[in-house]
Amino acid sequence: MEAVNALGRRKTAVARIILKEGKGNIIINKRDYKEYFPMGTLQYIVMQPLTLLNVADQYDIQVNLDGGGINGQAEAVRLAISRALVKINADSKPELKHAGFMTRDPRTVERKKPGQPKARKKFQFSKR
């Protein structure tokens, strides 16, 4: 099996991954994923698609992460891993889709409008 590339995005975070056969190592920006994401919840988010399909120890994953915060980055990695696993085996797509790992979360921060302090907040109106 040759390496599979995939892309995952969430808010402003972008995760580009290379997935190939191996022992289950996940390297994010040249660091182990447990060092990059010290919180257990974020480690769990990254591992969700692999544990769902019981293939956590079959693939090595190299991730290039950019932008966003740590939570958005973790969810971007999850989407990228899910997409790569579907490229390898299309039969796993319904299972991943049912768990909600194949959907790109489109929510991003709304831009600030001119003449207002924030995106939706308005300056106080004075009648007189």
Describe the overall structure:
The protein has 128 residues and is an alpha+beta fold. The chain has one domain (4-99): Ribosomal Protein S5, domain 2. Helix content is 34%, strand content 23%. The chain is built from 4 helices and 5 strands. It has helices spanning 33-36, 40-52, 70-88, 93-99; strands spanning 4-10, 13-21, 26-28, 31-32, 59-66. The protein has a 5-stranded mixed beta sheet. It is elongated, with a radius of gyration of 18 Å. The chain starts with a strand and ends in a 29-residue tail after the last helix.
Layout of helices and strands:
Blueprint (H helix, E strand, L loop, with lengths): L3 E7 L2 E9 L4 E3 L2 E2 H4 L3 H13 L6 E8 L3 H19 L4 H7 L29
Parallel strand pairs: 3-5
Antiparallel strand pairs: 1-2, 2-5, 3-4
Highlighted features:
alpha+beta; 128 residues; five-stranded mixed sheet; Ribosomal Protein S5, domain 2; single chain
